[in-house]
Amino acid sequence: xxxxxxxxxxxxxxxxxNSTLRCNFxxxxxxxxxxxxxxxxxxINLFYIPSGTKQNGRLSxxxxxxxxxxxxxxxxxxxxxxxxxxxxxxxxxxxxKVIFGPGTSLSVIP
Amino acid sequence: DSGVTQTPKHLIxxxxxxVTLRCSPRSGDLSVYWYQQSLDQGLQFLIQYYNGEERAxxxxxxxxxxxxxPDLHSELNLSSLELGDSALYFCASSTGDGGDxxxxxxxxxxxxx
Lengths: 110, 113
Fold this sequence. Notes:
The complex is a heterodimer.
Chain A (H helix, E strand, L loop, with lengths): L3 E4 L2 E5 L4 E7 L5 E7 L5 E6 L3 E5 L2 E6 L4 E6 L8 E8 L7 E3 L3 E6 L1
Parallel strand pairs in A: 2-11
Antiparallel strand pairs in A: 1-3, 3-8, 4-5, 4-9, 6-7, 7-8, 9-10, 9-11
Chain B lengths: L4 E3 L2 E4 L5 E6 L6 E8 L3 E9 L2 E5 L6 E5 L5 E5 L8 E8 L8 E2 L3 E5 L1
Parallel strand pairs in B: 2-11
Antiparallel strand pairs in B: 1-3, 3-8, 4-5, 4-9, 5-6, 7-8, 9-10, 9-11
């Protein structure tokens, strides 16, 4: 089945720093989303981005579907950005219709 | 607030028991997805319903079953519970039959003792 990898697995940032999170996938997909799971466990949708680039405030994302990767950029990080960031890919198959990556755990320290 | 509701928030039960988790999708959404999040397996897709019909089936155990009702709410039934079923169970909803944004509920934390 399709493999989804995320890097780095863990990241510690000083408040105000920038970072880039990466998601690689091993096969073609119909959809890709980025999520933030906050320390209380809530999964928050950040981007729906099967291809191209999107920006939302300090966050932006780029997906290059032909090369099977997506990047999430966090600029001027804040302590509230802490948590785990997941990418999830969606396919038209049944069994592995949605596959989540293992996540990047981000800690932003003041 | 995503607009997706899940009840209960927490559930503690014993091995061998049966429980039902409930999910109400966002207004207007026709798809409901169920996921399990555990420490060792990560986030895993279980099953998807669209407008009352099963559309995709992932890594869902035979002891687990789900359905989507005419009012579009969904229930996930877990039976013959084992210690390893302890996890966070999420539902998500989307407008169409896949290929669009999924919005997640707050989750139900199940503890099997």
